[in-house]
Amino acid sequence: MRLRPTVRGVGLAIGGVIAVLAGVAVGAVDLVRIGTLAVLLVVGALVGIGLLDPGRGRHRLAVERGASPNPVHAGSTSVVGVVITATDASGRARLAGLRFREQASAELSGGRPLRAQVARAPGRVTITYPVLAARRGRWTLGPLVVTRVDPFGVATATTSLGKGSRISVWPTVTELQVPPGVLVGDPDRVALGARSPSTDDASLRDYRFGDDLRRVHWATSARRGELMVRSDERAGMRPVSVLLDLPTRSASLEWSISLAASMTLAMLDAGHPVRLLCGPAPAAVAARHDAALTDRPMSVRHAHNRPGDMARADILDRAIDLTIAESPAKADERLLADARVLVASDDVGEIVLAVVGPLTARTRTALARVADKAQGWAVVRSGEGGHAQRGDAESTVTALQPSRWWAVTAEPGVDIARSWMRRLERAL
User: What per-residue confidence (pLDDT) applies to 18?
Assistant: First the structure.
């Protein structure tokens, strides 16, 4: 809390001191009394207003803050609502004399003061204001700053009310089209040359978080005491992994993340099980999953399109906290780890969509192993020169072709839909 006298209070205190000194000098007792009263009024106002903290005591005010939508995509607007409520008569009296000022991160406010609408009702104040999510990340809203002035207007107190909250900003995504028959196909035809038998003869596997409940084989589940699902229920929907090689330069980071997220969501909307491989999943995402349902780490599981957009949210949440790789060596380590996940996968006929930079010999070899059991398509970032071991984008595309990777180059910052169409053109 910050206590200070107002301009009126400063003037009154100075006048009081001068009056006391003058009264003492000339022996005027009444003048001394008037000056003392003026000084005591200012001091008493500061003490009194300091004791009536609206955020403490039995009569403290309650603050609730919410944003809609939250999370929000970068470049989009979210509306924030703050409700301050008094629960008793004393609290309502405090509430009536308060002035409010809301705070927000510069990534949400643009570094400018927030313009809010304030609606007052008995015992309740509602503050509403829009914020523009300029950048991907997790940004702070609040706490609310309240200012109150004593009844004489000689003292003011400024304090924080309530706690701050966060708004999550997803990367910008572009709606991408997935034409039938391009990139995708029947996994059984890819692996076996024909469709598998009917679901009555299908093998069963343990339930994994995100599996469609319509795939559950209830009779077997009841007999075994655990959920079992038909493993071929999604015939015709090949699993898709999107591999993101994080750049070492911030200039191409947001474009790479947006492209990878857009491709992942496009394949999810087309009905495919998808996963975004970009390192370990954030704890906030992994915590939403019941570890008892599967022993596979959340970061290597495929998500299925299901009601409530939970799969989309999980994919986008994974992208919120991504940062540039600390060094080319660190980027290689992460890419090699994700490649090992793909090689160890038991998914048949998987599609791998990759967003990578110029690759080293080690990472090219790792991706070649991935293509031995999956269909690989890559967008190679150009304009990331300066690292001798990685070479340039064109040499990476040339090196991937013998490994049955379909690869194209793209300059970071170009239209994402255009990069996607260039990739599709390679499939025609």
Answer: 96
Are 38 and 16 a contacting pair, CB within 8 Å? yes
Chain segment 105-140, per-residue pLDDT in tens: 999 998 888 889 999 998 999 999 999 999 999 999
Contact status, residue 157 vs residue 147, Cβ threshold 8 Å? yes
Q: How far apart are CA 350 and CA 239, in angstroms?
A: 5
Q: How far apart are CA 141 and CA 186, in angstroms?
A: 47
The neighbour count for residue 291, using CB atoms within 10 Å, is 12
% helix / strand / coil in the chain, to the nearest 5?
40, 25, 35
Q: What is the DSSP code string of 83-122?
A: EEE--SHHHHHHHHTEEEE--B-HHHHTTS----EEEEET
- 71: preceding bond cis by omega (within 30 degrees): yes
Side-chain-side CA neighbours of residue 257 (13 Å):
31
Q: Is 171 helix (H, G, I), strand (E, B) or coil?
A: coil
Joined tokens for residue 199: 């679901």
CB distance 99 to 147 below 8 Å: yes
- Is the preceding omega at residue 5 within 30 degrees of 0, hence cis? no
54, pLDDT greater than 50: yes
DSSP, residue by residue, 289-315? S-GGG-SS-GGGSPB---GGGHHHHHH
CA max distance for the chain: 114
pTM score: 0.78
d(CA 87, CA 61): 7
- The pLDDT score that the predictor gives to residue 289 is 44
Task: Take residue 394 and report the two structure tokens written for it.
Answer: 């064109």
Q: What are phi and psi of 84, to 5 degrees?
A: -110, 125
